[in-house]
Design goal:
heterodimer; A: alpha/beta; Rossmann fold; B: three-stranded mixed beta sheet; three-stranded antiparallel beta sheet; 4 helices; about 30% strand; elongated; binds adenosine-5'-triphosphate; binds magnesium ion; binds zinc ion
Chain lengths: ~240, ~130
């Protein structure tokens, strides 16, 4: 017996110019925040963008975006609704506010299902918010989406950077392009991570300061785009993604 | 009409096999549909007929249904999925992504959501026959 779904994924994504996974070996480093802000900033510049929350067990982009009652449309598949100017897809549409206790195999299955039925249409960028770590979701995405590129997030802590180094070497083994590394929640101006990043031959994208007012901007995209974080994300957009 | 996307996947996979097995003409495609996803057979059939490539034009699509078996990973209990315990919105959510069953269904014996879908999850391509 053959699972037919994988054979249609390339077709589903054929009109998406760039597909970028925002990822980290470590949890809680700001992947969801970076992915969401990045997508919003691209949308503000007039690009057609999508955001896909692949953190099925602990989704959070819907909270960052302040999504209320959006639902996908059914049309030869699933068409993601446009939320704050971006085509937005999350498992939350289906799991609601229930917990989604999924094991690796279920995560792969849900990921394959959504990739095979979601009709993204024509997009300049599809940004994917990844769950933490370098297991199922990363491996499946690399296997199924041939054009995937990774943007990696770390904090200033060596504990985070060590897992990021392992992720970099995994992605290199898999021959997946790495756009660069973002250092998030910086508490001082130390350049250790920047130097270490360059040492492993990866581009250092930017350092984002810890912003104690961020919490008030969650759920309000206008506020979010006015934070110091958004300012730094704009640098990535302008200096790296659009240049 | 989300069945349309599934039909497209079936056709894409069947075409790939036909090519690999050098089938000039495909006569029969057998598809197994798990009960969990509540796929509308009529819509699936219609979509398949619309999407048929030319070497499939005389192909018959046989759709067989499979019951959905679940097994609890905590207490080992096995049971069969029944849609009539669930409201329409839940059935629809599971229709789009069967894994969200874990958000709504619990083991009838011990209440755990940690179960395995051992059979009858989604749409499978079971067999394809044709002439070289
Ligand atoms: N630069 C920052 N300044 C202040 N708070 C931040 C910053 N970046 C992220 N946060 C906060 O840190 C927490 C973790 O961020 P986020 O959820 O984006 O991380 P994550 O890497 O996606 O986590 P997970 O691994 O659980 O998916 C959130 O509460 C977020 O609001
Ligand atoms: Mg996250
Ligand atoms: Zn049980």
């Amino acid at each position: 017996m053959i699972d037919p779904r994988e054979d249609v994924i390339t077709e589903r994504l054929k009109n998406v110019s760039r597909i970028i996974a925002v990822s980290s070996g470590k949890g809680g480093v700001g992947k969801s925040l970076v992915a969401t802000t990045l997508t919003l900033e691209l949308a503000r510049r007039g690009y057609k963008v999508g955001l896909f929350d692949l953190d099925f067990t602990s989704p959070s982009t819907h909270l960052i975006l302040g999504v209320k009652d959006a639902q996908p449309k059914e049309e030869k598949g699933i068409v993601p609704p446009i939320v704050n100017g971006l085509a937005y897809m999350t498992l939350v549409y289906y799991s609601g506010n229930q917990a989604a206790p999924l094991r690796g195999k279920d995560i792969s299955n849900a990921l394959i299902e959504l990739l095979s039925v979601t009709q993204w249409g024509k997009l300049d960028f599809l940004i994917i918010d990844m769950p933490p770590g370098i297991s199922d979701a990363v491996l499946d995405l690399v296997r199924l989406v041939k054009r995937i590129e990774f943007l990696i997030v770390t904090t200033s802590s060596l504990l985070a950077f060590e897992t990021v180094k392992k992720q970099v070497s995994l992605l290199r083994d898999l021959k997946v392009p790495i756009i660069g590394i973002v250092e998030n929640m910086k508490m001082n101006s130390a350049q250790t991570i920047e130097r270490e990043t360059e040492k492993i031959g990866v581009k250092f994208l930017t350092g984002i300061p810890f912003d104690s007012t961020l919490e008030e901007a969650l759920g309000d995209v206008t506020k979010l785009c006015n934070t110091a974080i958004a300012n730094k994300i704009i640098q990535i957009v302008e200096k790296t993604l659009l240049s | 009409m989300h069945e349309w996307a599934l039909a497209e996947a079936v056709i894409a996979a069947a075409e790939k096999i036909a090519e690999k097995e050098k089938l000039r003409e495909v006569k029969e495609v057998t598809i197994k549909v798990g009960e969990l996803q509540q796929v509308e057979e009529d819509i699936l059939r219609f979509a398949l007929s619309q999407l048929k490539p030319s070497n499939f034009k005389n192909a018959e699509f046989r759709i067989t249904k499979a019951r959905t078996a679940l097994r609890c990973r905590v207490c080992g209990n096995s049971w069969l999925f029944k849609r009539n315990n669930l409201d329409a919105a839940t059935v629809e959510a599971i229709h789009f992504v069967p894994e969200v069953a874990h958000s709504y269904i619990k083991c009838p014996k011990c209440g755990s959501p940690d179960f395995e879908i051992t059979e009858g999850r989604g749409v499978w391509l079971e067999n394809i026959k044709g002439v070289r």
